[in-house]
Amino acid sequence: MIERMKNALRAQPAPTAEAHCDGPCGIYDPASVRIAAEAAVSMTKKIVALTPPDPSDAKATAAYLNTMSRYVAIKEEQAHIAKTELLVLWTDYFKPPHLEKYPNLHETFWKAAKLCSAVKVEVSEQHCQELMAAVEEIHKIFWATKNRDIAWYTAG
Amino acid sequence: MRSAGFWELCCYLLRRRERFRVDGASMSPALRAGDQVFVARRRAPRRGDVVVARHPYRSDVHVVKRLVELDGTGGCELRGDNPAESSDSRVFGKVRSELIVGPVTSRV
After folding, report:
1. Residue B26 is nearest to which of A13, A15, A19, comparing CB atoms?
2. What is the pLDDT of residue B15?
3. Domains along chain A?
4. A39-66 mean pLDDT
5. Which of A32, A45, A142, B87 matches a 20 to 30 Å C-alpha distance to B105?
6. Residue B1 scores a pLDDT above 80
7. Helices A125-145 and A105-121 sit at what angle, rounded to 10 degrees?
């Protein structure tokens, strides 16, 4: 009798109580920010270094404009990806207990996100350097929260 | 976790119990994925109880964890029995006691 009642109950849906990890995977790594930021920084350097051709050379001018357009498009795209990846880390990974330990966390992320926008909009090597410094700072905080000693490195 | 008997079913019929379905392996072997449990909403949980609580940062989510510590200011330390499979107070910090729905009293 009791077993029949329990079987009937079990067949009815019930609200879920989760006994697992948050999110689909829980895998976060500030390397995703670094790679996109590095790409945007690299494009900034290439834009600065690209020499305009003689305007009378139509073919060279076309090639120049094409290359410049591609550099600008990639810089904007990668700077935007870096900002998106920052926001994911900031809003999904970091929790209030982390903030207690790192009170400047919000300021650090806010500045880093602003620098992504600056690198996206401008051609500023100064802001590129500041962005990489901010990403390095976030790298240090992130791995410290996991009690892991992961050395900072860059691909470029 | 003990299996629900006559008394638990009576409590459920009298609306003294809520029913939840467990998802995930963090409370195995006490509770396995797919198990249903009864939760006593009106009973204050004690240290060591398995409890259902509202997630502190995702209001639409309930979690089922073990209450390993209850401090004097109403902060509850929740842990999965299987740390590797669990997001718990190590991730989201202590949970305010008002977010605890109640202790799990039996398995349906």
Report:
1. A19
2. 94
3. 28-145 (1.20.120.400)
4. 97
5. B87
6. yes
7. 150
CA distance A124 to A146: 34
- Do the chains contact at A21 and B4, CB–CB below 8 Å? no
Are B78 and B51 a contacting pair, CB within 8 Å?
Answer: yes
The per-residue DSSP string of B46-94 comes to -TT-EEEEE-SS-TT-EEEEEEEEE-TTSEEEEE-SSGGG--SHHHH--
- Taking alpha carbons only, the member of A140, A80, A76 closest to residue A108 is A140
Rounded to whole angstroms, how far apart are CA atoms A54 and B103? 79
B6-107 domain in CATH 2.10.109.10?
yes
pLDDT tens profile B34-71: 999 999 998 999 999 999 999 888 778 899 999 999 88
Helix segments in A89-104, DSSP class H: 96-101
More confident residue, A27 or B67: B67
Between A and B, how many residue pairs show a Cβ–Cβ distance under 8 A?
A: 84
User: How many C-beta atoms surround the C-beta of residue B83 within 10 A?
Assistant: 10
User: Which residue from A14, A22, A96 is facing B93, i.e. has the nearest CB?
Assistant: A96
Task: Answer yes or no: do B21 and A17 touch at CB < 8 A.
Answer: yes
Q: Which residues pair with B102 in a beta bridge?
A: B52
Buried b (16+ CB within 10 A) or exposed e, A50-89: eeeeeeeeeeeeeebeeeeeebbebbeebbbbbbebbeeb
Our CA-based measurement puts residue A77 at a distance from the nearest CA of chain B, in whole angstroms, of 31
